[in-house]
Specification:
The protein is an alpha/beta fold. Helix content is 39%, strand content 11%. The chain contains 43 helices and 27 strands. Strands 15-12-14-13-17-18 form a six-stranded antiparallel β-sheet, sandwiched between helices. Strands 5-6-10-8-9 form a five-stranded antiparallel β-sheet. A four-stranded mixed β-sheet has the order 1-2-4-3, covered by helices on one side. The termini are far apart. Bound molecules: flavin-adenine dinucleotide (FAD) and iron/sulfur cluster (2 copies). Flavin-adenine dinucleotide binds at residues 42-43, 77-85, 88-89, 98, 119, 141-143, 147-148, 150-152, 154-155, 157-159, 258-259, 263-264, 395-396, 487-488, 524, 594.
Length: 1020
């Protein structure tokens, strides 16, 4: 047996490793502390700094890297999405990231229903391409949008429908892998195997034969057992046989090996027909115990899934605006008390009618079990899809708890036989309360694997409580003959429980397997074999020694600066959490590394990752870098400004402040606000560039430029004379490839008297059908036709309009504001990191709007980035309650009009459209769920047939797309889906509310996109 590597004492020659990797491979090599720090964590509570990070481009790169690491005695850790929950992807090793370049299908055989893929292929991407063939890979993990097949095989992952399809081990047909000595071996059917794979197989067979009685005694008989190595391939113990014909497949030994035995090069997978029909029956229970007790009876009806959602989770979903409506579709009576639990029972198959029969059978069964009328039948596919999304978001809903206490994953996938499920959950609930905590239960009732995480504070007494709860939970698992590790693998968290589960002889045999495969013990050491104690604090991400650097942020983060009660989950008052960074550090620490920001196919987050696939250009990478900087864990040249350091600049460089993470990150990590903090600190350190000043002060000088005769025309020459554009690029860094917005001499503000009819006090306006319409800098100076259109629409609908302007307000008389009479939201200052200036500017607008908001007058904006500043940043700038009231009344034109139509207060009576409409939502509009009203409104135009362009960020993002160093990335973002969709519909109106979105569309497609105000006005 090999001597355990002492990872803490491991002396490695990082420089030699990096030098050789750079010389001998084409991959990306990273050794700086920030890059290593970004790969030091997964979705567990652990952290370990890698020796170096390697992103290989070719298979030869991987083979060479394994070889070099072996020669230098450096461990190797293969990594996919890094979403493991037990720390299996953390280690002091050369971490090799497969997810960027190894994403291909190598072979697809439709007749034999198998596919061979590279290890970095993401499950959703695979299933996306299989759908057209009526097939899918059915191991449907909740992290399907980011989990890679290599990682899923590494962990022996299991999906919600494992009762019907099994775990990874039941669905892998073969694995080609590099062994520790760099040799490639083909693991498949044992009977047909040859070479080194056969030798290894023979060895394992020898062990299994000797240990057959031990295997039969110690291997749990449940489907969900993923601990250790699958020594039972030769003497199957799983409820569901690993192979249909009873043969032995050597690749199954590698499934669940967590990167400790071999490095997967390609994986051959068994595909299943995509079920044509699915129905859902949702059983409502007034008693949690009864729900658990019923599972054993429900599975006899042959469902494809039985998933639990408990009362806490239902209530959390009901309190979240994104989930409320959907979760209530699952309740018998949403006006009554929330049920203690619901079970989502899914049946699927090739025909609909038999499934409806199954639903009936479920209703009858529940009647027999004493619960007549407890089932909500849901045959509708789209309702089912929405409900599954809420179920999948379950863990993330829970993880959004603010404060240092977090729901910790360490016993959350113990699996017990169904007949004991009710007693087991009851007993474990009692254990939680004994230790001053509480668990929220959800997930796979069908297979006795319920997720539950007690809230623990790992910086304080979390480790002791974790140990105590784990000891008691393990005793219960033993009592009920279950498996301690039933889904998420072993990693650092459950490694020590392998010998507890299997006994000394099997543990010894597992170690022998490891030594035979990997004699030097270099493949992901410390996992499965020779694991550390689960509560060894030196492996924690937040050990008791974790300290945050004191700093004063520019914005108010006190809402995050709280602590929570682990039983009631109530949080303390804002500002009382004891964060030396005044809440900023706690906001950053909300990132639990679940990797949801690595998704590609839906919504917006995270545009910079979507085009680069680099961890550092991902919300998670940014949050991790910030956390490490704020807790002094990075080697920084300028330690006086961790927030404004070059390490943070590197990760913030491509963040387009789209605010998608604010909405889509399950724990609400708000990187756009964090970027403001960075910019503020960074610009304090390095000073503002000419470009910063030009962008920031645009609202101040726009009026002057437009009012000087011929100056607008002169400045517009820049768009026509290439050398001027080149010169500007050289001096200011504004890309010569871009056209700039066109200056006008006649603007919305040219004739101040023209707005006299639109000046009302709050008192006057409140007595009429009144609204406030914001004339933002972009629409007022560059596209005044949008403002005019909005006025036309609102006037036609009978509203009196007030347009804020300082000529009517006291602010205009102060000397400071003499150069500009227009209000501004301060957005351009925020983009340049001038937070004080933004506060001053926005403060004036807030003062002006407050009396209108107090009178409940709607405040309407046209430019999403300006309007949503009132609903977002204004709330963290110290403006107090006034800002909150304003935010409640601030809305886009379409939000206002759509609501008025819904309330029956408005009938727009629009003319028919001559061509169909394509709509592109601005990122901030999407972040504030304001795309639906736009679509609702466009549907009111007869024949418009509005279609939403499924796009992420347009890539322009304020000034980002104009910046010379970002032009290429900006174009790539636009080309990801927005511009191709527009090109595919040459005869449509293109509607986009954002001025930068319209600019990007014009630059990229030579098509004019219009503001929604304009299209509405055109159809009046
Ligand atoms: C919110 C949330 C929900 C989850 N839901 C589920 C769920 O429903 N079911 C479930 O089973 N899990 C779930 N998980 C855990 C995790 O997402 C899965 O285990 C997932 O399959 C891991 O994939 P990955 O690409 O992130 O792998 P990683 O975490 O990157 O790697 C996992 C293991 O595989 C090894 N590995 C990766 N690539 C290779 C390779 N090429 N060769 C050899 N070994 C390799 C790694 O070394 C590591 O040990 C969840 C996690 C989170 C955060
Ligand atoms: S930023 Fe949000 S989505 Fe991304 S890993 Fe962190 S918590 Fe998950
Ligand atoms: S604001 Fe947008 S670009 Fe920046 S991290 Fe969030 S999702 Fe990514």
């Amino acid at each position: 047996m090999n001597k355990p590597l002492d990872l803490k004492e491991l002396m490695v020659d990082r420089a030699a490793l990096a030098k050789r990797l750079r010389q001998e491979t084409s991959g990306e090599v990273m050794t700086d502390s920030a890059s290593r720090g970004r790969y030091a964590t997964d979705a567990s509570i652990y952290q370990a700094m890698p020796v170096a990070v390697f992103v290989p481009k070719t298979a030869e790169d991987i083979a060479t890297a394994i070889q070099i690491a072996a020669e230098l005695g450096i461990p190797v850790l293969p990594r996919g999405g890094g979403t493991s929950q037990c720390g299996q992807t953390t280690g002091a090793a050369l971490v090799i990231d497969n997810s960027k370049y190894f994403r291909n299908i190598l072979d697809l055989n439709l007749d034999k229903a198998y596919v061979e893929v590279e290890p970095g292929m993401v499950l959703d991407h695979l299933n996306g391409s299989l759908k057209q063939h009526g097939l899918w890979y059915p191991v449907d993990v909740s992290t399907a949008g980011q989990a890679t097949i290599g990682g899923m095989a590494g962990n022996n992952s299991c999906g919600s429908r494992s009762i019907a399809y099994g775990n990874m081990v039941h669905n892998v047909l073969g694995i080609n892998a590099w062994l520790a000595n760099g040799q490639i071996a083909e693991f498949g059917n044992y009977a047909n195997s040859s070479g080194v794979a056969k030798q290894l197989g023979d060895f394992v067979k020898g062990l299994a034969t000797t240990l057959q009685p031990e295997i039969e005694t110690h291997f749990p008989k449940v489907l969900r057992r993923v601990a250790g190595y699958n020594l039972d391939i030769f003497h199957p113990q799983s409820e569901l046989p690993y192979t249909q014909d009873g043969s032995v497949n050597l690749s199954h030994l590698l499934v669940g090996s967590e990167g400790t035995l071999a490095y997967f090069k390609s994986l051959k997978l068994k595909l299943a027909p995509l079920p044509k029909y699915k129905v859902l029956g949702i059983v409502n229970f007034a008693s949690f115990y009864k729900a658990m007790d019923s599972a054993q009876h429900i599975v006899k009806l042959g469902p494809t899934a039985v998933e639990l959602v408990d009362r806490t989770m239902i209530d959390l979903a009901r309190s979240n605006p994104s989930f409320k409506k959907t979760i209530e579709t699952a309740l018998i009576d949403h006006t009554a008390q929330t049920p203690e639990a619901i079970l989502l029972v899914e049946f699927s198959g090739e025909a609909h009618a038999p499934l409806l029969e199954k639903l009936k059978a479920l209703e009858e069964l529940m009647g027999d079990l004493g619960l007549p009328g407890s089932v909500v039948p849901m045959p509708d596919a789209s309702l089912q899809k929405n409900l599954w999304e809420v179920r999948k978001a379950g863990l993330n809903i829970m993880m959004s708890l603010k404060g240092d206490g977090k729901p910790v994953s360490f016993i959350e996938d113990c699996a017990v036989p169904l007949e004991s499920l009710a007693d087991y959950t009851q007993a474990l609930t009692d254990v939680f309360s004994k230790y001053g905590s509480r668990g929220t239960w959800y997930a796979h009732a069908s297979v006795g694997t319920l997720h539950v995480r007690p809230i623990l504070d790992m910086r304080r007494d979390g480790a002791q409580k974790m140990r105590a709860v784990a000891e008691e939970a393990s005793a219960l698992v033993r009592k009920y003959k279950g498996a301690y590790s039933g889904e998420h693998g072993d990693g650092l968290c459950r490694g020590e429980w392998i010998s507890w589960q299997f006994g000394p002889k099997i543990t010894e045999a597992l170690a022998e397997i490891k030594t035979t495969f990997d004699p030097k013990g270099l493949f992901n050491p410390g996992k499965i074999i020779n694991p550390p104690k689960m509560d060894d604090a030196s492996n924690f991400r937040f050990p008791p020694s974790y300290k945050v650097i004191p700093l004063q942020p520019a914005l108010d983060w006190s809402a995050w600066n709280v602590q929570n009660n682990p039983v009631t989950e109530e949080t303390s008052a804002p500002g009382t959490g004891g964060d030396p960074a005044m809440g900023l550090a706690k906001a950053v620490e909300m990132c639990n590394n679940n990797g949801h920001c690595r998704k590609f196919d839906a919504e917006v987050m995270c545009p910079s990752y979507r085009v680069t696939r680099d961890e550092k250009h991902l919300t998670r990478g940014r949050a991790n870098t910030l956390r490490l900087a704020l807790s002094n864990q990075l080697d920084m040249k300028d330690e006086s400004s961790p927030l404004g350091s070059d390490a943070i600049k590197e990760v913030m460089e491509l963040c387009v402040s789209c605010k998608a993470c604010r909405r889509e990150c399950p724990t609400g990590v708000d990187m756009a606000k964090m970027k403001i903090e960075f910019l503020s600190a960074y610009k304090k350190r390095v000073g503002h560039s000419l470009r910063d000043v030009a962008v920031a002060y645009l609202p101040k000088y726009a009026g002057t430029i437009s009012s000087i005769p011929l100056l607008p025309a002169l400045l517009n020459l820049r768009n026509h004379i290439a050398p001027i554009a080149k010169l500007q690029e050289w001096i200011m860094g504004i890309s010569a490839q871009r056209s700039l917005p066109i200056w006008k001499s006649k603007t919305f503000w040219s004739n101040p008297k023209a707005i006299t009819p639109y000046q009302y006090s709050a008192d006057e306006l409140s007595k009429q059908k009144g609204v406030v319409l914001l004339a933002d800098t972009f629409n007022a100076y560059f596209e005044d036709e949008n403002l005019i259109a909005a006025i036309k629409v609102l006037t036609a609908a009978g509203y009196q309009i007030h347009i804020p302007h300082k000529s009517q307000s006291k602010a205009a008389n102060t000397e400071k504001n003499a150069c500009s009479k227009e209000f501004c939201c301060g957005r351009t200052y925020l983009a340049a990191g001038m937070v004080d200036k933004a506060k001053e500017t926005l403060g004036e607008l807030v003062n002006h709007l407050a009396p209108y908001a107090d009178k409940n007058i709607p405040i309407i904006g046209l430019e999403p980035s300006c309007l949503f500043t009132l609903k977002d940043e204004a709330l963290v700038m110290g403006f107090g309650e006034r800002a909150v009231t304003i935010s409640q009344h601030a809305q886009l034109l379409e939000e206002f009009l759509a609501n008025e139509v819904k309330a029956g207060k408005l009938n727009l009576n629009l003319k028919a459209a001559s061509k169909p409409v394509l709509f592109h939502g601005h990122c901030h509009q999407k972040s504030f769920a304001a795309v639906t009203p736009a679509m609702e409104l466009l549907k009111l135009i007869p024949n418009a047939e509005p279609k939403l362009i499924e796009s992420s960020c347009c890539g322009m993002a304020g000034s980002f797309g104009y910046e010379a160093e970002h032009i290429e990335v900006s174009k790539q973002m636009a080309e990801a889906s927005l511009l191709p969709s527009i090109r595919k519909s040459p005869d449509s109106w293109v509607v986009a509310d954002g001025t930068s979105c319209r600019h990007q569309i014009a630059d990229g497609t030579q098509r004019e996109a219009v503001h929604i105000a304009k299209i509405l006005a055109a159809h009046l």
